[in-house]
Design brief:
The protein has 294 residues and is of the alpha+beta class. The chain is 37% helix and 21% strand. The structure holds dinuclear copper ion. The site of dinuclear copper ion has 9 residues, from loops.
Length: 294
Amino acid sequence: MAVARLFWVMAIAGALIWAAVIGTLIYATRERRRVQSEHAAGLLILWGGAIIPALLLGLLLGYALWLMPDIRPWSAPGEPAGLRIEVEGEQFWWRVRYHPADGPPVDAANEIRLPVGERVEFTLTSSDVIHSFWIPVLGGKMDMIPGRTNRLTLRAAKTGTYRGPCTEFCGTSHALMAFSVVVMEPDAFRDWLADEARPSPGAGAPGGELFIANGCPACHTVRGTEATGAVGPDLSHVGSRETLAAGIMPVDVEAIASFISKPDAIKPGAQMPAFGMLPEADIAAIAAYLEGLK
Ligand code: CUA
């Protein structure tokens, strides 16, 4: 909101100053033809010669600086730090890490949950190529650049579930790289985050042994198990997410099984190797296990 207000004030004031300067110039040139008017020369110095424009632009600068506390993406010294969420773009998914003000970080992927009405700071980066983070409904958009951390602050006004696409062409599956944003009541959000930090109740279910025996832990983490890989998306509580594979499929056993057998056919360029050579029953068991991680 503050940015939109600043934009309109700047645009309208800029247009008025431009019109006044050009108007004075035209007036002064015409006057000059008739008489060497001192009046026109004076006007020219005042308007064309930038004394008044400089003063007005100074006022606008003051206004912008005065608005800065509302639009700066970082917390001021002494201001209580709020929730910070680190998001890293990967080909072609999102690594998400919540940094609550009071507690250890919590890892997740491909879905972002936010408390309604609170200022949340995002730190955005990329591990491979340039991606871009955008939640159209909330207005924030910022590039994710390898080797650099960009900051963005958002405050969601309404609860609901929204979609965020990647908005920088980043490879063959750029169009298949999205995430969901779930805006929750602050108390519900805090309960959810506390649950998210704990191992899923489904972590001991059958199918988990197959997940481990087939090498999935080399890339994936499931909190509370020996799976602690960090190459691919964190799968703790994957069954409770809105979507699978970065916004492209529902989270059900069938979709998970098909992604395990042929990830590259569903998401061209995905780093995950295909596991189609496993017995169908094993794939189904692993899929059921993952779907049960709520
Ligand atoms: Cu990531 Cu486009």
